[in-house]
Amino acid sequence: MKYAWPAPCINGLTLKKLAGKNTTEFAVYLERRDEADQKIENGQFVDLSSAGVERFYFRAVEHIIEILVNKKPIQIKDGRHTGLEIKETAIAQGLNIGLDFVLSLHKAGGHTQIIGDQDPVQVHQGQCFTAIADDDKS
Questions:
Q1: In whole angstroms, what is the distance from residue 87 CA to residue 85 CA?
Q2: Following DSSP, what letter does each residue of 85-97 receive, concatenated?
Q3: How many folded domains does the chain comprise?
Q4: What is the pTM of this model?
Q5: pLDDT under 50 in the chain at which residues?
């Protein structure tokens, strides 16, 4: 979209609203030619008074949440992950488990659900998982 803005400045919040973007789910960036693009915060103003046309673009914001694996806090991107991805993330953050460990999700009522390496699970803030060595060598 192209807009002729009547003022010498505009802020990030206004840019998001003009583009119809959720103000907390998207970040806005000012495109630059000879240097890194600049992230524009909601309350940050951009000077539009210089010659030329400014180009802005939007990116979805990654949300990092905390889950528990073996009662240890693990930071992970909000969204869908496989069991293997959850274990890899936990290992990368120092949890002493192996990729061959069995992962289970704690559910309501004291129940658990085994999450296989390729099984997708939607992770949520505060979810609890247990990873234990697979003692079945048959």
A1: 5
A2: HHHHHHHHTT---
A3: 2
A4: 0.63
A5: 138
